[in-house]
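User: Can you write out an input/output pair for a complex, sequences first and structure second?

Assistant: Here is one pair. Inputs:
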Amino acid sequence: MHGLVNRSIQCFVEDTYGGSSWDHIIREARLEFRDFEAMLAYNDAITEAVLDAAAGHLGRDRNTLLEDLGTYLVTHSHMNSVRRLLRFGGHTFEDFLQSLDDLHDRVKLAMPDLELPHLELTEVAVDRFSLVCRFERPGYGAVLQGILRALADDYGALVLLDLEPGDGAVAPCEVLHIQLLEKAFARGRSFSLAGHATG
Amino acid sequence: MGEVCDDIVTSSVTALDALMPLHLSVDPSGVITHVGPTMQKLHPEGALSGMRFMDVFELRRPVNAPDFCALWRRGSCGVKIRFRDGERFGLKGLFTRLSGGSHGLINLSLGISVLDAVRCHNLVAADFAPSDPTVDMLYLIEAKTAALDESKRLNQRLQGAKVAAEEQAFSDTLTGLKNRRALDHLMTRMARSSTPFGLMTLDLDYFKQVNDTFGHAAGDYVLQRVAEILVSETRSGDMVARVGGDEFILAFQECVDPRILNSIASRIISRLEQPIDYDGQSCRISASIGITLSSFYADPVPEQMLGDADVALYWSKHKGRACHTIFDPGTSSESVR
């Protein structure tokens, strides 16, 4: 798994539960180092071990943990760049949903070795969408659920989300059902194309 | 014919604004008749429509078009323009006369100034045509910048780790002195750059007795004190290395004066002979020293110099220890002081 993914898990645990929790988790996962490097690659088994240890130590099931991770990625100030890159998807939450089809290729352009799931959005009825998430193993669906929940807040939209787990087939796919209840439920956070990091 | 075109332009304004939000319409006299919404955003000072094109913009390309007439005569060509006032953003695009000849159209893009323009005028995705990849470009710039920053941080950490590892690889862990590898490195460098240097090999005397009588902890303690003394008796550019249990080598850069090296050797021996207190026990040692100088050799070879310094050291021991001897390349005899 790409270092960025592992590093995100580490930042999530440290920023949410504190450094000592992370110390405990890496001991439990029997890692020989403390810090993940975002720009290095790691064996998938390491990520699995860390997630298992984290779920055990924090007393949460894997999906809840991953959903919280997704929310963290959008809402925490340390992860502002992730939120910004996602907000490039469009002016409204609906635009953003439509842009998810391109996310995989966009990320590939910027970071060719970062493997992310293929996403496919279908509009099943007015304001009802289903988002198919294909990846070699399940888990991203829950992360995506957290991301979407937080981004809906960010846009000021009100949504209902329901994750249908993968069926364990050859090409596992998770389906996230999205119901857009209110497009402008609240005032969202502002977003500027220019940002501050580019200066 | 002209009126037909005017009609087309008028009825198509909405479409033009949507298709090309960064366009300008001009008439043959060079007056701006209409601008796209994003174009107007770039000029918050006032409405562009009605102003003279050449008053607002500096025409940078084509180069041989000194006035608007020259541009108009071309019919169609690539243009580069720049605002005369404000942030003076550059824009590039295409000028073309519409078929009726009563209007010209300039469709523009921000090109490389896009970041500044977006920041100054707070442009949003809707300000760009859907066919315009500008927003994708901004996304890419931001993502690449974030990735590059992270890579830079990784490089800095790796550089720090490399320096620490090298430091470790060149150090003797017990005393913190340099080790044999560091010494070889330095001597090779000095020999290659023809830097003159003096070389001292030093063996502790009676160190084995300290180890046997008071134990290894006492021995280690004595070695650490010895290291401190050797470092304090040398300059920062010199090198003190521990190359064996109780064997040390000192290299003195830019120093081939036998009198100076002899007096340093005397001082080192007399300081090492002062008893070292360990855990209430008084540990007594001394040292024998052999010296050679790079100036003795037409082409100094580190191995040979070390061998000759050892010969001089042997003579010091032979003379009854606690002595220092300078190797004599001419006669292979020695001078003991």
